Amino acid sequence: MLFPCILSLLLLFLSSCSSSPPLDLSSLPAHHTSDGRFQNTDTLGLLLLDTMHLEEDVANYDNSFYPLPLVRGNEFLWKDSLSSSATWIGQSTFYLRLGNLGVLTDPIFSKRASPISFIGPKRGTPPGRILDSLPPVHLVLISHDHYDHLDKRSIKSIYKKYPDVVFAVPLKVARLLKKWGIAEKQIIEKDWWESAEILGCELTFVPGHHKSNRFIFERNRNKTLWGGWMLVREGKKVWFAGDIAMGDGSFYKEIAARFAPLDLALIPIGSYLPARLTRMHVSPRQSAQLHLLMESKLSIAMHWGTFSLTAERMEDPPNDLKRAREELNIAEDRFRVSGMGEIIEIWRVNNATKLK
Ligand SMILES: [Zn+2]
Hints:
The structure is a single chain. The protein is α/β, with parallel strands linked by helices. The chain has helices at about 1-15, 55-60, 150-160, 175-180, 250-260, 285-295, 315-330; strands at about 85-90, 95-100, 100-105, 140, 165-170, 185-190, 195-200, 200-205, 230-235, 235-240, 265-270, 300, 335, 345-350. It has a single domain, classed as 4-Layer Sandwich (Metallo-beta-lactamase, Chain A). The chain has 7 helices and 14 strands. Helix 6 (about 285-295) packs across helix 7 (about 315-330). It is globular and about 50 Å long. Zinc ion (ZN) binds near residues 144, 146, 149, 210 and 243.
């Protein structure tokens, strides 16, 4: 409609005319730009691009997606407070059961990764588990605002079912959630390296090389921050890497210096073909390198097999990860490719501490 467009243009004009005090650039962290946006600061050296395929082959790949089989079993683990588990629901969505704590990462249960329910990239595989089949959710971790990671319909469904749930989001993403009706007190918004104590966890928002853009217009690019979450609970360390490229590697060296060894790392393995996409996403070989850098006791692959967004064939990420594991001498059970909906026990403790 024309009227809302004129109104929003007017508001944009008025806001650009308002006399906000000039920014003190010297006090801004390096990843904050003077126009209120964000930038990667790890690219002073060369970007580490990686390809595992010949470009001329990639051009002929059939990248259509097909449904993965849904894996069932192990549901008893959810009731066992001594056990912790990870369940892959698709893309970067995991349900983590950490003792009695329920955590969802970048939840998307919707058919499409899109602002419009009937247009946009469609799931090739249904969600590994539906929200109603999961045990309670206490905490939701969001890595950035891309549609396949921050899904309005899923966020609203989770909030409706669990009104006390806490959403941990990157800087400037809280505004969106508030617009969708989430109470401000339920949202934790963090800059890189900021931490919060919540639900018995120490949560730290950690850097990753990526970008953000919620809408199609270039003017919205990088207005909100991106990154990953480090969750430390009862001495166990979990890294939800988010959607990341290797950059020059320095972000991850710093994360490893502060937190390694890790008990669990959720690492993306998809969206790396053609090779220029490794400016924004890690290749499976780089994912395997991150697993080693983080001294991860167990890593589980994510960001593949769900939406056909790039040129690789659906089976390429797990096959290439297998090759990388063999090259780098990583045992198969140390960097796992989960089945869709599979409940994987990640550790077991002797003494459970009841959360609530
Ligand atoms: Zn992204």
